[in-house]
Design goal:
18% strand; globular
């Protein structure tokens, strides 16, 4: 079974389109019989993804650091829940279980997870495709920055190509290897 790691925010954002897109993506992954591995939280887009996938009959694996347990924001109704000591351990386990990485809108933590996955791919530690779901242009500025970094010689065109982006969930899943 194909497993997709979903990195996303612990907030839902100000626009309901973010939660709607997260819900639609989670349902689509469940329909495609993909397991989802995510950060284990019950709040924000993380909670939306977990709830929507579970409601659609999906298999959802949460990897949560003890910090979430202590703050009582860990999701308890998952197919599997693993509690690890640190955020770093969580990222290692999440990417280790996944065949592909999918990123939805989020803040610092989401970008940290994305850039660590891309850095490890650049260093050939893994070869898992990474994709951004560009909900309502959320990642346009990030794409512009990466293009600028490439133009300025800080990112090679080959490494710039490691990250794919699409606003259409079906098209993005195809780009990261999730077939019909």
């Amino acid at each position: 079974m194909y497993t997709v790691c979903v990195f996303c925010g612990t907030a839902s954002g100000n626009d309901p389109q973010y939660a709607d897109a997260a819900r639609a993506m989670a349902r689509l992954l469940a329909q495609k019989n993909c397991r989802i591995v995510f950060g284990g939280g019950k709040v924000g887009l993380m909670g939306v993804v977990a709830e929507a996938a579970m409601a659609a009959g999906g298999y959802v694996i949460g990897i949560a650091p003890k910090l979430l347990l202590e703050k009582e924001i860990m999701h308890r109704g998952l197919s599997e829940l693993h509690v690890v000591e640190t955020i770093h351990e969580r990222k290692v386990m999440m990417t280790g279980l996944a065949d592909a990485i999918l990123v939805l809108p989020g803040g610092y933590g989401t970008l940290d997870e994305l850039f660590e996955a891309l850095t490890l791919q650049q260093l050939k530690v893994h070869d898992k495709p990474c994709g951004l779901l560009n909900v309502n242009g959320f990642f346009d500025s990030l794409a512009a920055y990466l293009d600028h970094a490439t133009e300025q010689g800080f990112l090679s065109p080959a490494f710039r190509g490691l990250l794919t982006m699409d606003a259409d969930p079906q098209a993005l899943l195809a780009k990261i290897g999730v077939s019909a």
